[in-house]
């Protein structure tokens, strides 16, 4: 391996060592909950800090000697600017670039981060899906290869690292949005026809006169909001989500059976089921006869207003 290739490899590896730091800073995952990741983070912090300090002072020393940065230089001269900025040992041999994060490559990472982020924001506004970040990476890869082939490795590596940082930022934003969303509901395969009713009972889903809650259907949401209690444990854990209950209203207006169709928390699911079982209605009428009618009630347990709230969804 030639010294020139070794320089490129060390630059790339040392720069990538900072990615776990960005992941931790953006709270993509809790490193503190894993001792191994915590020790790895500590090692990266110490090594990265040492590299940064050495790189800063060596870059400063190179600048004071009149070595200009390769910003604004022609593509053909970038490689010469890199090798000429390396300090020489007493024996006249080039020292290994312990200061891998040099002024040139670090500058490109941060200067290229903004346009890459802006471009990513524009692309993500039109493309949605798990693959859109990969699609966005194709022109970035092409641009990076072009910069590398035209003897601008600093810009190529800077562009690649900027793309990785944009990915970390996007992942952090996505996870933050996921954490603010209601808990993922457990979807049940039960249907209204699956209600535990005698074989002789065939519930209707629509009749001439549907069962009505006392005071009218408009009174049911208010009654749910007033009487259905947010379970204490769910309230303490700020559990929030949607519960959907299927039930059958008998010929006497009482609920014959109720079954959970969608839920998210055991306490909230149980509270909604028990609440529905105690409801009473005027019976459904078909051909002037009371009949059994199947209905559903969808209830949301929410903290959207900052306080626990229960409401009926359409």
Automatic annotation (TrEMBL):
Domain TonB C-terminal: 215-310
A GO BP entry: transmembrane transport
Keyword line: Cell inner membrane, Cell membrane, Membrane, Protein transport, Transmembrane, Transmembrane helix, Transport
Pfam families assigned to the protein according to its UniProt record, in alphabetical order: TonB_C
Keyword Metal-binding listed: no
Domain of life: Bacteria
Residue ranges crossing the lipid bilayer per the database entry: 7-26, 38-57, 98-120, 126-148, 155-174
One annotated Gene Ontology cellular component of this protein: plasma membrane protein complex
GO molecular function, one term: energy transducer activity
Subcellular location: Cell inner membrane
Protein's membrane topology: Single-pass membrane protein
InterPro entries: TonB-dependent_transducer, TonB/TolA_C, TonB_C
Keyword Ribonucleoprotein recorded: no
PANTHER family from the UniProt entry: PROTEIN TONB, PROTEIN TONB-RELATED
Family of the protein in this entry: Belongs to the TonB family.
Name of this chain's protein: TonB family protein
Organism: Hymenobacter rubripertinctus
